[in-house]
Amino acid sequence: MSSLLSTMFLATGAMAADQGALEATTNNAANVNTPGYSREVPILQENPPVVVGNLTFGTGVSLAKLESVRDPILQLRIQQETGQQGQLNSFTSALSQAQTLFTAGASDIGSEISNLFSSISQLSTNPSSTALRQGVLTAASNLTSTFNNTASNLAAQRSNLDLNVVQSVQQVNTLTQQIAGLNGQITSLQNLGQEAGTFIDQRDVLINQLSGLIDVSEIKSDSGITLTTANGTALVSGTQSFSLTTQPGATGVQHIFSQGTDITSTLSSGTLGGLIEVRDQKIPALLTSLDTLASGLATAFNSANTAGFDLNGNAGGVLFTPVVGAGSAANIGVAITDPALIAASSDGSAGSNGNLANLNAIQNQTIIAGATPTTYYGNIVFSVGNDVSNGTAELQSSKLVLQQLQDQRGSISGVSLDEEAANMTQYQQAYDAAAHIVTTVNQMLETVINMGTLP
Amino acid sequence: MSSIRVNPYPLPDLLSALANTQQQQNTSSLDLATGTRINKPSDDPAGAAQMVTNTAQSSQADTFLRSITSVTGLLQTADSTLNSVVTALQRAISLGVQGANGTLSDSDRADVASELTGIKQQLLSLANTPYQGEFIFSGTSTAQPFVADATSSSGIKYNGNAGTNNVEVGQNYSLQVNQAGSQLFTSASGNVFQSVSDLINALQTNSNIGSAVSEVSDAYDHITGQRVFYGNALNQLQAQQNFLNSEKVDLATAADSISATDMAATSTAFTQSQVATQADLAVMSRISQTSLFDYLK
After folding, report:
1. Pick from A248, A274, A279: nearest CA to A262
2. Which of A360, A301, A284, A313 is nearest to A121 (CA)?
3. Which end of chain B is flanked by fewer CB atoms within 10 Å, N or C?
4. CA-to-CA separations, A139 to A227, A333, A378, in angstroms, rounded
């Protein structure tokens, strides 16, 4: 059955649907600069038809829902890459600070080693000169204080990283709480059969931030989503978030605990992954190398110096305070203050320089892990430079990948103002058309009503 | 809607491109300003490690060169001192030959003997020559090498030792830089002080003057022979100095090829990154200013 009134209803229904669609367009245009916003598209649906006799009449249109356009798999890729980038970012920025200590200059360990040997050579041309002996002592104490400074700088950088770890853990906790809260809102909206696009967008933004801090795996379930770290430690489960805590560990740095379990060494991605790698592996390895170099030099110099005789004809003593093993670089010092105690002489006479040759020979001896002191130091420079250089290269490529993924996300979910303008025109015209129909039907109804009042 | 949707937000891409070109610009300008392309180890880890060795080697070469300069001074002083000794001994010999002439009176011989006593004093002072505060003929001792001694037949005894010093002037290359005074002045094959003393005695007693003169002549031959050591050492130092100077040039060339900025290439890169930055800025200023909304009026 088709009547003028039902035609009128059909037209007003179309007007309502078009108005709803126009609202989606307006919302899209309004959120054009909102980070993480996914554009909404109105889903228009044909109403079920009415069959009258052998005729089938359409019954118009209705707005089924406003749907956010997003690609969940792409979102996961973006999260992974954000984690990767967070890790590389904190790794390279932390190690870049460390590498400045190994930059060639007037006062790095390498040049101080050269200066010490140079002062010894000078002394050999006039072994009884107090000025030249003092030169050796000065060069030795410059070397030890450079060792001390480098080691304490590395230790200071390590404790700064430790602070960063604690701050990052606090950020992780804030984010997991917010995500758990959004999970609750999304679930209750979805249970009511409503679209939760806005909240999902917000949650995606937060999960992205979380991925930048720590490794995150996402599992979708009926009660929202579950987030865990790569090794399965729960961060968020539905509306429940699990806080991480920090406690000082045995090595004097903060360890990260989740419900009593130490998960520090399992974190490999995000800012925390990078910070922990530098704090617990790279800097300790550098310190160990410096310790090896310092104690190797100290041992060699001490044994060479004790083999000779000082200016007074007495047997030589140790030149460097004997430190072996961990803490050598931080604590090495010059053992003597009297320049006469440098054992230049090989036969006890004050003018002999015979033992200086033994001291000088150390620079060409493979006394430290099969390398000469200079080569060993060069290897340290190489390893720290190489780590930073590789990290930087990987960071560059990770940035490119992330950029492409963001482009891809933009091409799917991003708001295009051109498109929205076109949509606006389209819905406006449809609305106009429906409104015209209402006017026309109204006139027809008037005609029908006037049929009864013929002049 | 079957057309491919493009990312409507080109700005982040452009910003990151801009950051990249500016980074390139900074790197190039730092390389140009410092003249080295390794400003931190990560710029070229292998190169930075090579530079550590290169710097150490070149500092070693500098040290050797400084040692050579000090040692050369010492050896030249010793050599010219011995030259004076030789001259003094020549004078002693001619005085001895003159004193051996039978026509001389006792008082003439006494005059000759007293001039020889003066020469002996001069020889003593030459044998005690210091260089930079240290005696050069005392072996490895720091004591004054030759001192008066009434118990000795020559009246002078050697107070130093027989030690010698070597100074490293190259990698695994060390050079003996002194000779003990005992070897030079009181050697069995030519004793400077004993022979001059004997000549003075012979002139004073007018006996065995001829054999005393030949004794001095032996001492003269001995010192002349020993001087060769210093001449050789100075020659070797000169050769080593030339070698080290050319080694320094080699090391500097190597350092350049490891770390020096390629000025032409870096300037080009700098200009390119400038152009790229300007292009990015131009694009950014023109893009996204309009949308379809502007035309729907």
Report:
1. A248
2. A360
3. C
4. 57, 12, 20
Over 60: is that where the pLDDT of B227 sits? Answer: yes
Q: What is the mean pLDDT of chain B?
A: 90
Whole-Å CA distances, A438 to A5, A23, B89, B270: 10, 22, 141, 68
* Rounded mean pLDDT, A4-8: 87
What was the pLDDT predicted at B1?
47
Residue B84 tokens read as: 């004076």
To the nearest whole percent, how much of chain A has pLDDT over 90? 69
Contact B179, B173 (CB under 8 A): no
Closest CA to A124 of B80, B63, B182: B63
Task: Assess A149–B contact: CB distance below 8 Å, yes or no.
Answer: no
Kindly state the percentage of chain A with pLDDT values over 70.
98
Number of neighbours of residue B274 by Cβ within 10 angstroms: 16
**Predicted confidence (pLDDT) at residue A285 exceeds the cutoff of 60:** yes
Alpha helices (H) along A307-345? 328-331
CA distance B155 to chain A (A): 25
How far, in Å, CA of B44 to CA of B25, rounded? 18
B124-149 pLDDT, tens per residue? 999 999 998 889 999 999 889 999 88
Amino acid, res. A372: T
For residue A125, give the nearest of B12, B67, B161 by CB distance. Answer: B67
Q: Give the Cα separation of A257 and A268 in Å (integer).
A: 15
Handedness of CA A225, A258, A181, A80 (dihedral sign): negative
Instruction: Say how far apart CA A351 and CA A343 lie, in whole Å.
Output: 11
pLDDT at A1 over 60: no
Chain A (317-356) residues lying within 8 Å, Cβ to Cβ, of chain B: 345, 347, 349-354
Alpha-carbon span B285 to B39, nearest angstrom? 35
CA A148, CA A330: separation in Å to the nearest integer? 4
Average pLDDT over residues B215-227: 93
* Contacts with B188 (C-beta within 8 Å, 6 or more apart), sequence order: none
Pairing of strands B186-187, B173-176: unpaired
Predicted ipTM of the assembly: 0.83
Pick the residue of A109, A124, A345, A417 with the most B CBs within 10 A to test the interface with B by mutation: A124
